Amino acid sequence: MKKLLLGDEAIAQGAIDAGLSGVYAYPGTPSTEITEYIQHNPLATERGLHSRWCTNEKTAMEAALGMSFMGKRAMVCMKHVGLNVCADPFVNSAMTGVNGGVVVVVADDPSMHSSQDEQDSRFYGKFAMLPVFEPASQQEAYDMMAAAFDYSERQQLPVLMRVTTRMAHSRAVVSTCEAARPENPLNYDAQAANWVLLPANARRRNDKVTAQQAQLEADAVASPYNIYSVPAVAQPPYALGVLASGIACNYVQEALQMAGADGMLPMLKVSQYPLPKALVRRLLGDCERVLIVEEGQPFIEEQVRGVAESNHILGRLTGELPRTGELTPDVVGQALQRAGAPWATASAATPDTPLVVPRPPALCQGCGHRDVYAALNEVLREYEHPRVFGDIGCYTLGFLPPYRAIHSCVDMGASITMAKGAADAGQWPAVAVIGDSTFTHSGMTGLLDAVNEGTDITVIISDNLTTAMTGGQDSAGTNKYEAICRGLGVPDEHLHVVVPLPKNMAEITRIIRDEINYHGVSVIIPRRECIQTLKRHAKKQREQ
Amino acid sequence: MKKDIILCGVGGQGILSIATIIGEAAMQAGLQIKQAEVHGMSQRGGDVQSHLRISSEPIYSDLIPLGGADVIISMEPMEALRYVPYLKADGWVVTSSVPFVNIPNYPADTDIQAALAQLPHVVSIDIDQLAKDSGVPRSANMVLLGAAAQAIGIGYEQLASAIGHVFARKGEAVVGANLRALALGKQSSGL
Ligand SMILES: Cc1ncc(C[n+]2csc(CCOP(=O)(O)OP(=O)(O)O)c2C)c(N)n1
Questions:
Q1: Is the dihedral of CA A219, A221, A227, A233 positive or negative?
Q2: What span, in angstroms and rounded, lies between the C-alpha atoms of B74 and B58?
Q3: Looking at the DSSP assignment, which residues form a beta bridge with residue A243?
Q4: Which of A149, A253, A387, A498 satisfies CB 3.0 to 4.6 Å to A101 for a cystine?
Q5: Residue ID of nearest Cα to ligand 1 atom 22
Q6: Is the previous residue joined to A237 through a cis bond, with omega within 30 degrees of 0?
């Protein structure tokens, strides 16, 4: 069957066809569409595959391990920074190993189209001593899912599948198989001792996994995804060779095609790690110079260069490629030229039109977050040095004009804890602004810290009843926020729910002012549905 | 056959539906396709673009090289100008003429028209008005697609059949409106 699929959708379809029993995920660009595809897939529905959103990436990773323990195949999906949140279970999953196959799909976002940083997940794979797959095309992404689940079960280790924005969010025609493999049955063969990471067990597993590394590398050398190709006509030594990983291969091929130079360079394509050193040595032996092209940080380049300065290994560290940012056919074409491929032609671009101005994203007209910031700004104007600790979501856009209302945004949940630290330092007023989904993702524990110490902070949970920034997914705590805050010990007198609308401005500003003047933890919950999901719900109703 | 197309506009204007129709038509024609989309942050009223590549030969890169686009199809005139560095020297620009002003420093309309006029092949149409006048106000993006049909190298009939396919689920009325919009665009482009 042929389908036009996003890379994310190809991964989802590949997982379903590989006999998946559950996907566990928290939304995050550019990974969100993997889980959404499974949520809407007829076979997944018929089989009752788990696909509900999790509260955060850590609960997702752990639930997937539990499913694997019982013998079934589970997938975990997240954006790159999500891997920081689940780093604890992720790294320790190498120690427990798996029973049913586990594939952890992580979508990196070089150039930070929708992210706080440019971290490269392949480092986590190496750090945890786990095999990493990095597909070069949507078709390969689909094919790799079945291979990754099989490999995970054969090696009894999770597999990390790393993609980047352009793979996740680009469509291509993908051939899929006719019939999905059945799900694994429950299986009680897992050696329970492996799963109890007391030091004695963990040491035994650590020795085993360390010893396994040689096998993983041998498998990478033999992998059908790692291909060394040499020009049909010329003989070594070649003046220039290329080592490219994942979709970086495509940009190299594009440059070759543009120059009518298809197949003219020796090229090692790497899509499975640990780094297949034997193949890299062959390439280095055959070529006078090697250009290393990889999407993300210079992960392979650093391993190949080591500490020995070499004029023969070129890439991001030597300036042929930009040190940061995502690859494009243009920067790769220029790099080939700089590395001494005279045929590589820089494309002739029409110059920029100076007239064009940036058009940054903004809070929607009619969005409740707007009313929250309008009220907050009105009150905080009365203080000399107010500080507002923001968090991650649509409401981060409150940093931009006209509101310019927040002073920080670091990682999910950091608003409450940073406000607490600032208050500990003597700051007043210290206000935290956090979204509903972000609050259940990572805000609750910080609120407990503040309650336990009676810290003088004012927390605003701006509840739009959804996870809006990533496209309106269900939010784990909907209808539970007052109960959660009460349960954590926020007193009723200092827990308020308001409706953020211009007509309620007087009430909202009064409450904010009163709670700033109360010297303890208070929580204000402005609650009004996101206007995007509101429109979508209205449209659905009209259609019915 | 090989066409590289930049689709652009402002988040929420419906460029992805245009991409879906071209993609479907290209797939029916047995062509290779790569279509890089924008999801996420910039969809909140920011500038959005999609690189759409169709070819009878294998396509490697998901992104179009600078100076490589045969056509820019834009839902907004300033957004059309933003991607001019991607345009081939003799490439086409097919754009809506109606500015979408959601920023304080939006340039003067006359300056935008003047900058567009310097490009070799420009079709600029008030797609909103056309769609409204013809009773298909929700299908302005299909008017634009119709206007670009000649430049993208896929037969008009194939685009129409793709519309039938993609919108089938939404009922005959929706399919009909979008087909009317497509025809309207084709006529008004003068191509
Ligand atoms: C660890 C981590 N996971 C996921 C994301 C992606 N992400 C950014 S904002 C956001 C949603 C926030 O939702 P909410 O707090 O309800 O605010 P809203 O966007 O609805 O205003 C998500 C999931 C991230 N930045 N970091």
A1: negative
A2: 26
A3: A268, A292
A4: A149
A5: A28
A6: yes
Give CA angle at B173 (B170, B174), nearest 5°. Answer: 50
Query: Closest Cα to atom 2, ligand 1: which residue?
Result: A82
B125 with B181: CB under 8 angstroms? no
CB-based contact B84 A350, cutoff 8 Å: yes
| Cβ <8 Å between B115 and A470 | no
Ligand 1 centre to CA of A439 (Å) is 10
Nearest CB to B87 within list A257, A350, A357: A350
DSSP letter at B75?
A: S
Residue A349 is given by DSSP the state P
Produce one character per residue of A293-322: b if its CB has 16 or more CB atoms within 10 Å, e if not: bbbbbbbbbeebbeeeeeeebbbbebebbe
- Residues linked to residue A463 through DSSP beta bridges, in sequence order: A527
User: Residue A32: helix, strand or coil by DSSP?
Assistant: helix
First to last CA, chain A: 31
**Mutating which of A170, A247, A470 best tests the B interface, going by the most B Cβ atoms within 10 A?**
A170
Specify the CATH number of the domain A2-222: 3.40.50.970
CATH of residue B145's domain is: 3.40.920.10
The answer to whether A256 and A146 have CB atoms below 8 angstroms apart is no
Q: A400 to chain B: nearest residue by CA?
A: B103
Mean pLDDT of A367-373: 98
* pLDDT for A233: 87
Which CATH number is associated with domain A368-534? 3.40.50.970
Half-sphere exposure of A245 (CA within 13 A, CB side): 26
List the residue whose alpha carbon is closest to atom 1 of ligand 1.
Answer: A82
- Whole-prediction pTM value? 0.96
Contacts of B87 in chain A (CB under 8 A): 350
pLDDT digits (tens, 9 = 90+) for B28-46: 999 999 999 987 766 778 9
Please name the residue that has the structure tokens 């890379």.
Answer: A7
Q: B68 and A347 in contact by Cβ < 8 A?
A: yes
Q: Is A281 exposed, middle or buried (0-12, 13-18, 19+ CB in 10 A)?
A: exposed
Q: Does the beta carbon of A511 lie inside 6 Å of ligand 1? A: no
Cα gap B67→B90, rounded to integer Å: 10
A416 three-class SS: helix
Interface test with B, best of A350, A396, A539 (most B CBs within 10 A): A350
Q: Which of B40, B62, B111 sits opposite A250 (nearest CB)?
A: B62
Q: What is the ipTM of this complex?
A: 0.94
User: Looking at the 3D structure of chain B, how many domains does it have?
Assistant: 1
Burial of A232 (0-12, 13-18, 19+ CB in 10 A): exposed
Segments forming the whole domain that contains residue B92: 2-189
**Smallest CA separation from ligand 1 atom 3, residue:** A82
Smallest Cα–Cα separation from A395: which of A418, A372, A413? A372
| Amino acid sitting at position B186 | K
Residues of B in contact with A347 (CB under 8 A): 65-68
Residue with tokens 């903004």, as numbered in its chain: A362
Highest CATH level, class, for A227-338: alpha beta
Residue the block writes with tokens 């040499």: A230
Q: Is A514 helix (H, G, I), strand (E, B) or coil?
A: helix
- Spatial strand order in the sheet of A287-293: A227-229, A267-270, A238-245, A287-293, A313-314
Q: Which tokens sit at A142?
A: 């689909």
User: Who contacts A393 (Cβ-Cβ below 8 Å, separation ≥6)?
Assistant: A434, A435, A437, A438, A467, A468, A469
User: Please, which pLDDT band fits residue A347 given cuts at 50, 70 and 90?
Assistant: low
Residue B97 has pLDDT above 80, yes or no: yes
Helix axes A138-155 and A7-17, enclosed angle (nearest 10): 40
* CB environment A30-43: b (16+ within 10 A), e (fewer): bbbbbbbbbbebee
In this structure, the strands spanning A102-108 and A132-133 are: unpaired
Report how far residue A500's alpha carbon sits from residue B60's, in angstroms, rounded to the nearest whole number: 49
User: pLDDT value at position A455?
Assistant: 98
